[in-house]
Amino acid sequence: MNQHDMPEVLDPARLSNSFLGDTIQICVVTRDHRKRMAGFVNLGIGPWAVYDFAPPHITETTYRGRPGQYAMRLCLAWSGNMLWEIIEPTAGESIYTEFLEAQGEGIQHVAVACGELGMQARIDEFRARGYEMVQSGVFNGDVPYAYFDTRDDLGTIVEIFDIPETGLPDPVEWYPAPPPGS
Fold this sequence. Notes:
CATH topology: 2,3-Dihydroxybiphenyl 1,2-Dioxygenase, domain 1
Distance between the termini: 50 Å
CATH class: Alpha Beta
Structural class: alpha+beta
Low-confidence stretches: none
Number of domains: 1
Number of strands: 13
CATH superfamily: 2,3-Dihydroxybiphenyl 1,2-Dioxygenase, domain 1
Helix content: 10-25%
Number of helices: 4
CATH architecture: Roll
Radius of gyration: 17 Å
Order of helices and strands: EEEHEEEEEHEHEEHEE
């Protein structure tokens, strides 16, 4: 990008070409979700909601531009306003198995809120900026998600998702224990 193509600085945290909202999630991909949850709990991050992220709970799945069949154990925990995610692939080819094979365990993607844009508008904006959608699907019938290969520019993948006002379903388990009132 040359100097004439640079976006205008609107304020200390925003450029004129901004369409992303806050970074809301960091994901660690692992071969052992229990080991990773225990490590985070040791740092005071938890409790962890654990989900089986597999058919029939995920539908309309794509991987590298074609229909995909994959499954994972997905674990979520809040730390302040940041959602930590741990993914352990359990079946099929996915961007998570690619990551483990190429790099081993570690931070594989970040997720961002995309302001007031709808999911399709978000997807269109990523594509208009030249980013390939590398994986997508729908969780629990009402949580669409999509991943874009932004590694050349950012060194990581970016995920977008749209959680309904009703929130996520109940997890299959909590680690180390459920929060009060759950």
